[in-house]
Write a structure and sequence with these properties.
15 strands, outer membrane lipoprotein receptor (LolB), chain A, alpha+beta, 4 helices, 15-stranded mixed β-sheet, globular, about 260 residues
């Protein structure tokens, strides 16, 4: 009787572990696809062009070696070249307003009553955003829609799983990867890697929903593993294609002004 009880106990403890091992070791089959990158590029861009403007509100978390903060954010975007954000802390206290175009930016630090103006270089945006980022990566991530400009790659390879196409583009000094939903042709994840496969930056889109033909993610993350920098964005409400968006930063006369090159 005791031996039988031990066997039952053994089965109860061991079988769930076995089931977990089986589920963990199961992998998605990846095969080479006959689809071309030019076809995927056209389909993704066609999808992306359905969103011309975004007015959204949500929560943002920024994590880096010199900053760890969470707040609320208003994001207004006119594609392809304008991004406005308003950051607020607890109790709706204003922190900063930021207007970025492909050419230049205006950053108003409300807490310090200071205005910074400069060109939208990667180095300038990296200081403002607290994560190293280029303008195109910024607008692609915050808008939730990736638009392909890639045309100077050396070679391309397309793989596919049950869920995604995986486009792999090889350049002289880096590799770009794009995970593209097979049914609706939106980018779920993209990454830039060095020639050894180490991630430079990864942008992930999650919790998609469809509205009037637009597939939009509620959650977005931008991560630079090497620098230990990340942005986590969760949208709570969104309005698409408002043609009357206006970007205005109210700057008091008492504000200090700083210019960056």
């Amino acid at each position: 009787m005791l031996k039988k009880s031990r066997n039952i106990l053994f089965c109860l403890l061991f079988l769930p572990v076995c089931a977990g091992l089986i589920s963990c070791t199961a992998s998605t089959t990846t095969t080479e696809s006959t689809v071309t990158f030019e076809f995927l590029k056209e389909k993704v861009n066609e999808n992306s062009q359905k969103l011309t403007a975004l007015d959204a509100y949500g929560e943002i978390s920024i994590d880096s070696p010199d900053l760890n903060n969470t707040g609320t954010i208003t994001v207004s975007i006119k594609k392809p070249d304008s991004v406005f954000t308003k950051l607020e802390g607890p109790f709706g206290i204003g922190i900063a307003d930021l207007l970025i175009t492909r050419k230049d930016f205006i950053y108003y630090n409300i807490m310090d009553n200071r205005v910074i103006k400069g060109s939208s270089t990667e180095s300038n945006l990296s200081i403002i955003m607290r994560i190293r980022i280029e303008f195109d990566d910024l607008i692609n991530s915050f808008s939730g829609k990736y638009y392909f400009h890639e045309d100077d790659y050396i070679s391309s390879k397309i793989l596919e799983t049950d869920r995604d196409y995986l486009a792999v583009l090889t350049y002289d000094n880096e590799i770009k990867k794009f995970w593209i939903d097979k049914n609706n042709f939106y980018v779920r994840k993209l990454g830039k890697y060095d020639n050894k496969g180490k991630a430079k930056i990864e942008i992930t889109y999650a919790d998609f929903y469809e509205s009037k033909g637009i597939f939009f993610p509620k959650k977005i993350s931008v991560i630079r593993p090497e620098e230990r920098q990340s942005i986590w964005l969760t949208y709570n409400s969104e309005e698409f294609n408002n043609s009357n968006l206006n970007f205005r930063i109210r700057i008091p006369k008492s504000a200090k002004h700083v210019s960056w090159k």
